[in-house]
Amino acid sequence: MAIHNHYAGQEVAETEFSRRIQEAARRLGWDAAEVGSSTEIKRFKPDFVVALHFRTPKLTQYPTYGSMVTPPSFFADDDQFIKNILSYDTYLCSSEHIKSWLKDILYLTQKNYFFVPWYTTCQLVPYRAPQIEVPRLFYAGTNWDGPRFGELFARLDTEQFLEIYGPKSAWTHIKHSYRGVLPFDGVTILNALNTAGVGLCLHRKEHCDAATPSSRIFEIAASGAVAICQEHPFIKNVFQDSVLYLECTDDAQRLTGQISGYMQWIAGNPEGALRLSRRAYDIFAQNYTLEKLLADLAPRHQQLVERKKFTPNRSPKALGDKSAQFIVRVGDRGVGYVERALDSIACQSYPQVGAIIVQYKEVPNLSRLLDKYNNRLPIQLVHSSYTGSRSTQLWDGLKAVSSEYFCVLDDDDAIHPNHLSLLVQLLDQFGDCGVAYSGAIRIWESGPATGASAELPAEPSELMYFEPFDLGRLVTLDNFITSNAFVARGSLLNDLGNDPQLPLLEDLFLLLFLCRKTNFVFSYEATCEFCWRGQKNDNSVLMNRQNWEAARKRIEKLLWKDSVHSTQQIGRSSLSQLETHLESRLTEILTQTKANADAIAIRLDRYLNSPFLNVIRRIRRTLLRLPPPEV
């Protein structure tokens, strides 16, 4: 397993947690590594990845599981954080509150996922009686959000029993009790707790409201120390009377007095304190060790791998019923790029797949490369004229499609092994949709399937597009579906028409063509990659701005042709104009609704296939004069 730590190398809670996971995995006989980037994940080639923080989305082809131990209030208002979370393949949850939030946000998706219990706990260590002859009160923290419980610690600082550990800069307000920094190694903090004899467990209000425990309660119980805890739903439910509880009050003076009283009781009643210590340890050891959590995860992981078709299928592919062909245009890049693209097709878990190679320039050693796939992948070679318009090669490829489904894969891009399986599955599920698409990961690279260079960012990958379908964005030429992200029904190409002669934005024009005829559905998975390089001659995105504007104007002109105008009056309409038009027409039909037409008629297009939503789809088709859905 790979443990993806957004804060790798920093002295933070995630780093300590990562060390503990590694140790527990080692004891299970697993190979575990902490990684700080997608580059390291790909080098390690894990069975699965655990993302420790919601700042990290899924960035590779490997199953990625989100460590959901943070209250939703920390990320619920940030769209990018939500997209990161939605990109995960499954969820490791530390409370029912978090699980409930996830169920809500996932409610209208079609993802396969599961929930398993997961906590920022510890590896199993032998029980050791705490040293409570002269008990000390241990507390550790990084205070990443500023001084917590300031008045309480200021009062406790005047007592003789307090020992505080953490970054010096986080505890400048403590004058007497600060003891320095402990190594973030997964072990030292447990030893320090055992030596002190007593641990203090406090939580922010958000953690109490979400009933998600911090690592403190598990550290204290694992170390054998006696726990003094602020009341918390998880601790009350799980550890019950094995810990000492503080009153529910913000009165720092009162809390200080209660903590001082507990310290005196522990010193005067060692037998009773040791019984508490042992009960808390047994609860931890039987139910909450990282070894147990990881072992419980393993069979669920295997089931998900099978359900989501993660395993690459290197068996020979064949065309037949329900087959799909990828259009791959070649000519401007070397054979190394083409090989990477074809490999990603040949490794699809979906068995009925082939490629249409559209060649518009000579590519050295291309014939030799294609020979390598003779017994692995059906390949049709189409020779295309080099016209300077990227749409020429695309249209030549589209005209050669003979399969039930078709896809596009630029020669410098790639798809994950389960990309086609998941999208065809969606089209089978949603008969009124003709196009299914996934989220896309952008990767900065330096050369054809080469390693990183000094100029690349520390994290070269980014979850660039992860967007539910929005017709309004497409008709204003704001594309959010990459050319390799979608699978479409071949029957949609029956009236393809002539090459639109577009030097750029040909993929957007194709999407608009498909919008005239069918509905789209989003997979809520990230299963494709598109690569960028810094050279203008190798990256169309970096071409002259005037070329882009010319392509946009060309598309606007094409959209005014009768074949489009009579079907879907979008032309040069702005998004706001489209929304106004749809809203006024919907109001005539559904007088009771005040909702935005785009939200009702378009965004809901991706939702569950309920009777009500089918009615909405029919209304949309009526208003836009769309033909019946392709089946």
> What structural category do the secondary elements indicate?
alpha/beta
Measured on Cα atoms, how large is the radius of gyration?
29 Å
Strand content: 15-25%
CATH topology of the largest domain: the name is: Spore Coat Polysaccharide Biosynthesis Protein SpsA, Chain A
Average residue-wise pLDDT = 88
* Shape, per Cα inertia axes: elongated
The CATH superfamily of the largest domain turns out to be Spore Coat Polysaccharide Biosynthesis Protein SpsA, Chain A
Number of strands: 20
Largest sheet: 9 strands, mixed
Q: What is the total domain count?
A: 3
Number of helices: 23
CATH class (first level) name of the largest domain: Alpha Beta
* Uncertain parts: 448-454, 561-613, 620-625
Helix content: 25-40%
Give the end-to-end Cα distance, rounded to a whole number of Å: 41 Å
* CATH architecture term of the largest domain: Alpha-Beta Complex
